[in-house]
Specification:
The chain has a four-stranded mixed β-sheet, with helices on one face. It is flat. The chain is an alpha+beta fold. The chain is 36% helix and 36% strand.
Length: 154
Amino acid sequence: MIKKIKYITIFISLIFLFGCGYSPLLQKEKIQFYIADLELNGDRQINNSISKNIKKYQNYLENKEPYKVYIKSDYIKSVVNKDRSGNPKNYKVTIKINLIVINSKGKEVNKRFERFSSFSAQNKRVAEKELENKYKSDLSNLISKDIISFIINQ
């Protein structure tokens, strides 16, 4: 009796799992564009990360719409709070992206993306700088995905 219930539960779970209609957002068949021109201004590390993530969308695709993409990145690191002696305890890092997308018909769309994260100050400056760079890279990757999703949904 317990085996039958176990098999029925597994069977129903499989039906729900395979019948949910999941499909990846960045599926190749849905991509109806390519980035013909990419211009990056601002913070070099952020631009390198975004460029690396967008590179696969820069390949020419026949019968697909070309886009010109202009990105201006800004990076801000600010102290959130300090201890009694005036030393920083927590930082907030913010990445702001101004995006301009121009399609083949000349229609221009502007969009602003902003991501931020906070982290605690470290005792060693080297460890703090590594942590800051990690957050900077992670936020840049998230914004890259936001940019591609925005272009796909144009």
